[in-house]
Design brief:
With 198 residues, the chain is an alpha+beta fold. Helix content is 26%, strand content 23%. It has 2 domains: 38 residues; 143 residues, Rieske Iron-sulfur Protein (3-layer Sandwich), CATH 2.102.10.10. Strands 1-11-10 form a 3-stranded antiparallel sheet, with no helix packed on it.
């Protein structure tokens, strides 16, 4: 074997070795860069769907959960609550939820998939306070003939038990209905996923 043949073999080996090392180095540099563009586990969990077991929720009661750092109320309305929704309509600003961006299943008098369950974000649409749940029926100091609902103590906005805003209050639109669906034989509400129903 001549000296020229040895140099060519050596040159090919060095070229191949340099190419392999360079490819590995480039890959090692790209992996963290691409990884940094992926959302963190914290970010993923902040927007992740939340499951709420409603199998033990009693009529007239509600459960509060957090979804995307917002309180979400799941209220089990009684038969009387549902009957009272129609009585409230003359006093409401947006009975069918037409003026606010809502899922299609919220554009009805009960603003829900199932009439007995209200799933709503518990933040006033005026300035972001959290309204109080006021299920008591009767003549309360802030509303004559109150049939139950939500009252925002910050600026006096009122909403019925479907989250529909009253006329003449600071809140411009109804409470927001998040995307949601049912699973596990309708015993669990999944907040944050509606299976494309919206």
């Amino acid at each position: 074997m001549s000296e020229q043949d040895v140099d060519k073999s050596r040159r090919r080996f060095l070229t191949a070795a340099t190419t392999v090392v360079g490819t590995i180095g480039a890959g090692a540099a790209v992996v963290p860069f691409v990884g940094s563009m992926m959302p963190s586990a914290r970010a993923l969990s902040a927007g992740a769907p939340v499951e709420v077991d409603i199998s033990k929720l009693e009529p007239g009661r509600r459960v509060v959960v957090e979804w995307r750092k917002k309180p979400v109320w799941v209220l089990y309305r009684t038969k009387q609550n549902l009957e009272d929704l129609a009585k409230m309509e003359p006093r409401l600003a947006d009975v069918e939820s037409n003026s606010s961006r809502q899922p299609s299943y919220a554009k009805n008098k009960h603003r829900s998939i199932k009439p007995e369950y209200l799933v709503v974000i518990g933040i006033c649409t005026h300035l972001g306070c959290s309204p109080q749940y006021r299920p008591e029926v009767g003549d309360l100091s802030f509303e004559a003939n109150w049939l139950g609902g939500f009252f925002c103590p910050c600026h006096g906005s009122k909403f019925d038990l479907a989250g529909r805003v009253f006329k003449g209050v600071p809140a411009p639109v109804n409470l927001v209905i998040p995307p949601y669906s049912y699973t596990n034989g309708d015993k669990v509400v999944v907040i944050g996923e509606d299976g494309g129903a919206a």
